[in-house]
Every structure is written in structure tokens, then in C-alpha cells.
Amino acid sequence: MKIKALSRSSSDYVRERAQDIHKVQKNLDPTVHPFEKAREYVRALNSVKTERMFAKPFLGSLSGHIDGVYSMVKHPHRLNSMISGSGDGEIRIWDISERESSWTVKAHKGIVHGLCPSPKDSKFLSCSADRTVKIWDQNEGTTPIHTYMGKYAFTGLSHHYTDPLFATSGNAVEIWDQNRSEPIQEFNWGADTTHTVKFNYTETNIFASCGTDRTIALYDLRTSQPISKVVMSMRTNAIAWNPMEAFIFTAANEDHNCYTFDMRRMESAVNVLKDHVSAVLDVDYSPTGEEIITGSYDRTLRLYNARQGHSKDVYHTRRMQRIFCVQFTMDSKYVLSGSDDGNIRLWRAHAAERMGIKSVRERAHLEYSAKLKERYSHMPEIRRIDKHRNLPQSIKKADRLKKQILGNRKKKEDNRIKHSAPGSIERQPERKKAIVGVAK
Q1: What is the pLDDT of residues 222-255, one digit of tens each?
Q2: Which tens digits make up the pLDDT trace of 197-222?
Q3: Region Disordered: start and end of each range (predicted)?
Q4: Could you state, in order of their start, the residue ranges of all structural domains in the chain?
Q5: CATH 2.130.10.10 fits 58-348, yes or no
Q6: For 14-26, b where at least 16 C-beta lie within 10 A, e where not — what string?
Q7: Whole-angstrom Cα distance, residue 191 to residue 189?
């Protein structure tokens, strides 16, 4: 007599240890799961809801400055260290993990306009409106190692990434050698005053400056000549180079936008970053080159994906005033902002992200949730929850007014095109509207 019996191995469903998770049998055939998309949608909805519930970006405040913080730079080699300069000439080195000042000096008699670290050692440089540039070393005490005297007030400072050279901005852009007391080169291309200068991280001999005549100029140390210049409709306040893409930089403008340019084709912007309701005062890239942080006169910080035009998050507090400087930390996990209320604030770069060691299952769950949100980001309910932010009433009113003004401009342009001869008026692209002209 033949008997058919079911036989199975206990290793297919029994845990090896009591700490292991239970084994679950899965059939991956899509015909067995007709409600797969519905279940995924619910998971994506729950994921985006919990992300907004647990979004707590503000971590703490670094207080100690008496005047406003107008310049700030991260340490190139230490994750937990940054340097800040205030309006009363004081410079502080901060221990971010302890959230306290580790070194303080009354460095200048005027406002500290620029700070930059020396890439090769622990020294850093500072410049001020008192017409001096000073080199400091935390290990050498509170006396400057060297002082350079200029003919006029300095408004910006940037160090060469490999050579002992640094650039200053003021009445002209000047190149200094650390071993000489006088500038070795001077660049001047039309602007009465230049207020920002920045060296490229990758193409180290190229640097950019922006002036009071609304220009952004590029220079090359090897030829001792300017490369190109673009004239904007309004003044540019700050420049940041992409650390991963050598030819890309972003300019923070007075017209509430940031413009990303490719230095090889300056006739049109690569991207326009919108959403601020007042002048953008500073901009910085994350070390990965994938994210951008901006600080504005409207008292908010905004985080952008480098390839998208609208902000993915906005940070603000009740006591924070106008933001004059912003920085990413070297691990891309945190953001620092300095404002004229005298405080430096520490934020998470991703508002709902939790610090600490994550298990393999937790990491897999977070990656799965992120992919689900990306897949269903076009759904109205998920998009509404993901984009919702609580903003101050003043910013809401300003945003509403700005949208109304831009809408009226667009309507006026549409009417002009409609009532003109075909082809006589061309619609100007958004990426070219702010550009007045390019010179080479």
C-alpha cells in the first residue's frame, strides 16, 4: 500500500537561535499579489507621515559672540571644529560636539569679513575692514603669526588649495604669497569694489569674484588674466564651487534666487534655485556636491537638491535673525548657520534622520521607505504631506505677494505675445532672464 505524505525540512521555518527573526515564506509571483500597489501606496503614505512627525532639525545653539556672526568656515581636517568671526572683530574656534568655544581672540578692530583655513596645516587666515590680513595658529596662542597690511578694507578671503597663496577682495582682487608682505598679482575688471572671492577646489588655479557692478568674474592664475564675466540683473552676494564638479558653481543673488552656472557656458544658468522671499546672502555645497544650503535675509535656511529648482526643506526659529553665513559640515550630516543675533545654530541636514549606529534591518527599512516615497511622490496626498511646512506669518504673506507679482508679470508677458505679430516677441527662458550680458 502506497501512502503519499507531505514532508518538509524544519530548517526552512525554524529559527536557529531565539534572537533570530522568524522565517517567512514568500511567493514572488505578481499574479498572487493583486493588491501589491495598494499596499505599497499605504506604506509610502505612512512613511512620509512618520517622517514629518519625527522631523526635528534644530540641535542646538553655539552662543558666545557679542556681535553678529558675519563669517564662518569649517575646518578642512577635523569634523568637530569650525571657525567664526563676528562684527566686533572677535574670532572663535568651536568644538561642535561639545557645543562650546575652545579658542577665542580679539583679532581685528573692525568686522571680520573673511575666514579661510590653510589646507596643509592647522593655520587659518582672517581679513577685516581694518585693512589687515592675519595668519593664526591655535597651538601658537593668541598672537598672529604674520600680519599683512593692505591699502584698503578687505571684504573677502580665499586660500589656494595646494600652494601657499591666498586671494583677497576689496577695491581689486589681489593674490598674496604667504612669504611676502606685498601682493604679487592684482586683477581688476571694471568693478569699483569686489566683495567675494573663492578659489576652485579642483581646478585650483581658477577663482571667481563678484562685484558691486552686478558682475561675476572668473580668473586664471596661470595666464594672469580674466577668463569671462557675466553681468546679472541684480547683485551677487556669495559664490560656492561644487567640490565634485570642477566647472560648476552657484551664486547667491539679491533677487531672491540662486543661479548655478557652468563656467564653460556662462550665457545661461544650469539651474535656478527659488523659494526665498528676500535676498540670499550665503550659499554652500555639501562635500558630496549633491546638496546646497542657502541662508537669506528673510531669516530662513533652505536645503536644495543640487539638480532641482525648489527647496526640499526650510529651517527657521523664532529668535533667529538675518542669516549671513551658512556651512555644511565635512560629513554632510549637519548644517551650521550664523546670524546677526550673535548665535551659531546647529541643524540636521536631513530633518527626520536619527544619528547613531543602525542595524542592517533598520537600514534596509529606511532605504525601502525612501524608494517607496520616490516611486509615489507624484500622488497628490503624498506630495501634499511631504511639501507641507509651518512657516512664520510674515514669510507666508511675502510668499503670497511674490507669487501674485510673478503671476501678473507672466500674464502681462502672455498678453504682449498674444497681441503682437507672430515671432516679433520671444519668450525668455527662466535661466536667462537674470543675465544681462557675458564678456570674455
Answers
A1: 888 889 999 999 999 999 999 999 899 999 999 9
A2: 999 988 889 999 998 989 999 999 88
A3: 403-440
A4: 58-348
A5: yes
A6: eeeeeeeeeeeee
A7: 6
